[in-house]
Amino acid sequence: MSTLQKLQWRYATKKFDANTVLSQDKITLLKEAFNLTALSYGLQTLKMVVIEDKAKREKLVPIAYGQRQVADASHLLVLCIQSKIDETDINAHFNTIKSVRNTPDAILEPFKAQLTGTITKMTQIKKDNWATNQAYIALGNLMTVCAFEAIDSCPMEGFIPQKLDEALGLDTLGLKSVLLLPVGYRATDDMFAELKKVRKPLSQTIIDL
Amino acid sequence: MSTLQKLQWRYATKKFDANTVLSQDKITLLKEAFNLTALSYGLQTLKMVVIEDKAKREKLVPIAYGQRQVADASHLLVLCIQSKIDETDINAHFNTIKSVRNTPDAILEPFKAQLTGTITKMTQIKKDNWATNQAYIALGNLMTVCAFEAIDSCPMEGFIPQKLDEALGLDTLGLKSVLLLPVGYRATDDMFAELKKVRKPLSQTIIDL
Question: Is some CB atom of chain A closer than 8 A to the CB atom of B53?
Fold first, then answer.
C-alpha cells in the first residue's frame, strides 16, 4: 500500500476485535514511536500509560461515556501531561543532552537559561495548554505510525480526565490524562470500516500562496 | 528502513538545501496527508497554506525570529485555524457526510444537534484552544508522513502569528496561523543531522499498568 492508501485505511475504529492482541513487538514499537515524537524544545514532559489488563479497562468504560473500544481493544494508550512542569524538568533535559552528546556547558547554558525563563514565566493554564498541545503531536504521530503498521486505533477526547486519573492512580503520580488511544485490530463486522471517508476536497482545505 | 529507523532518521532540520525542491507529487501527497488527518468530530476547520515562492518566504524570516528554514526549505507549510467556527461549519460538515455516504437525515440529525450544542457553547478561547489542538494532530501526522517519505521537516512554534497573518493576508481570509512546517531536504552540511537523538529511556516516559 502507498502512504496515502495507508492513511486512507486508517479510521476511528468503532468496534475492535476483543479476542486479538497486539504482539509484544508492536507494543514496544508504539512505545518507541511515542518516545520519538518531536516535542517543543525537545522537553519530554509527556508520559504514555499502556494498559492491557481487561478488568482494569472495563472500569474505565463508563468514564469514557460507554465507549467500548476502551475495553475491547488490545491495549489502551493514555497520553498524560505532568501536573507540574518546572526547572527540575529543564535540568534533567539538559543533563540528558550532556550525557548523550557530550555538549560543553558553555554551549548549553545560554539555551538552558532561555528555556528556564520561558517555562517559569508561563502561568499554570498556559503550561497546561502548551503541554496538552504536545500530547496532540504524539497522538498525530501515533495514529500515523499505527496506520503504517496496520494497527487500528481510535483517538478519544471524550472522557472525564479527573475520574480516569483517580481510577488509575495517575493523580498520585503527578499526571493528568488528556487523550486516549485504544489500539488493536478492527472487528470484522465494524460497519464503520467500510464507510467512505468524509473529507472536504483539497480546494477547500489547502491554500496555495 | 523500518518504521523506527524512519522515525530515528527524522530530526528538526536546522539547515535545508536551498537548491533542492520537492517534486509536485510529494507536495500533493503532503496536501492529501494533511487532508486525511483525523480531527475532532471529523470537523475540518483547519487550513494548510503552502508557499513555494522564495521572495514571499524571505519576508517571513524576521517574523520567525530569523529562522532561515522558512525561506531555505523547498516549501513552507502554515497550519491555520479559523478565527470563527460556528453552525456554518457544522452544516457544511453534515452536508458533506450526506453527499458522500447518503446517510439519512434521521440518523444524522441527532449527531448534528449534539455537535451544534457542543460547539456553540464554547467560549472563543475554548474554541481557539480546541482548534489549535487539532493543528497539532496535523503537525504530528505530517512530520511522521514526511519521515516515511524521506522528506525533511522542521516544526516551529516560534514566530509571531499576527505579523505572519498580516504579511500573508491570512487575517482577511478569517484565518489564524498556529504552526509552521518548512519541508524539503536537509543540507549536506547540517551538523544537527548527525547529532545523536536525545531521548529519555522508555522507563522514564512509559508507565505499564
Answer: yes
Q: How far is B90 from chain A (nearest CA, A)?
A: 13
Q: From the list B50, B100, B195, which residue is nearest A198 (CB)?
A: B100
Report the largest interatomic distance among the alpha carbons of chain B, rounded to a whole angstrom: 60
Concatenating the DSSP letter of every residue in A153-197 gives: E--B--S-HHHHHHHHTTGGGTEEEEEEEEEE-B-TT-GGGGSPP
Binned average pLDDT, 10 residues per bin, chain B of 209 residues: 97 97 98 97 96 98 98 98 96 94 94 95 96 98 98 98 98 98 97 93 97
Q: Domain B3-84+124-205 adopts which CATH fold?
A: NADH Oxidase (3.40.109)
> How far A77 CA sits from the closest chain B CA (Å)?
10
pLDDT tens digits along A33-51: 999 999 999 999 999 999 9
What is the rounded CA–CA span in Å between residue A141 and residue B153? Answer: 14
- When pLDDT is cut at 50, 70 and 90, the band that residue A202 belongs to is very high
- Count of residues in chain A: 209
What pTM value is reported for the model? 0.97
**b (16+ CB within 10 A) / e for A172-196:** eeebbbbbbbbbbbbbeebeeeeee
Question: A200 touching B, CB under 8 A?
Answer: yes
Chain A residues in contact with B143 (beta carbon < 8 A): 38, 137, 140-141
Sign of CA dihedral A13, A16, A22, A28: positive
